[in-house]
Amino acid sequence: MTIKPIRVQFKTACQILDISRESLRHLVRTDKTFPKVIKTGDTKQAPVYFDYAELVEWHNNQKQSLSILEA
């Protein structure tokens, strides 16, 4: 049985998507379809997480959009 994470840290999201931290920050700021961040506190230094299922769904939608454009 494989356990999938419920939420992933910012660093892990970068690794999953194989992008830099700055690229992920850019996606969060500019892409309205990108999953919203989950902050565990009110301070600026509070950890930031992403919902794993939402990241996977967003990635799959991006792949479908690209395949439609290429066809």
Describe the protein in words.
With 71 residues, the protein is an alpha+beta fold. The chain has one domain: Multidrug-efflux Transporter Regulator, Chain: A, Domain 2. Helices cover 52% and strands 13% of the residues. It has 3 helices and 3 strands; from the N terminus they run βααββα. A 3-stranded antiparallel sheet has the order 1-3-2. A hairpin with an 8-residue loop joins β2 and β3. It is globular and about 45 Å long. The N and C termini lie far apart (37 Å).
Topology diagram in text:
Layout: E1 7-9, H1 10-17, H2 21-30, E2 38-39, E3 48-51, H3 52-70
Protein name: Transcriptional regulator
| Count of alpha/pi helices | 3
| Apparent shape | globular
> Pairing-aware structural class of the strands and helices?
alpha+beta
> Low-confidence spans: pLDDT under 50, at least 5 residues?
none
What is the beta-strand fraction? Answer: 5-15%
Q: In angstroms, what is the radius of gyration?
A: 13 Å
Level-1 CATH class name: Mainly Alpha
Helix content: 40-55%
Largest sheet: 3 strands, antiparallel
CATH architecture call? Orthogonal Bundle
CATH topology name, in short, is Multidrug-efflux Transporter Regulator, Chain: A, Domain 2
Provide the number of structural domains: 1
Separation, N- and C-terminal Cα atoms: 37 Å
- Give the SSE string: EHHEEH
Instruction: Give the rounded overall mean pLDDT.
Output: 92
What is the β-strand count? 3
Going across the biggest sheet, name each strand in turn.
Answer: 1-3-2
Organism: Acinetobacter gerneri
Protein name: Transcriptional regulator
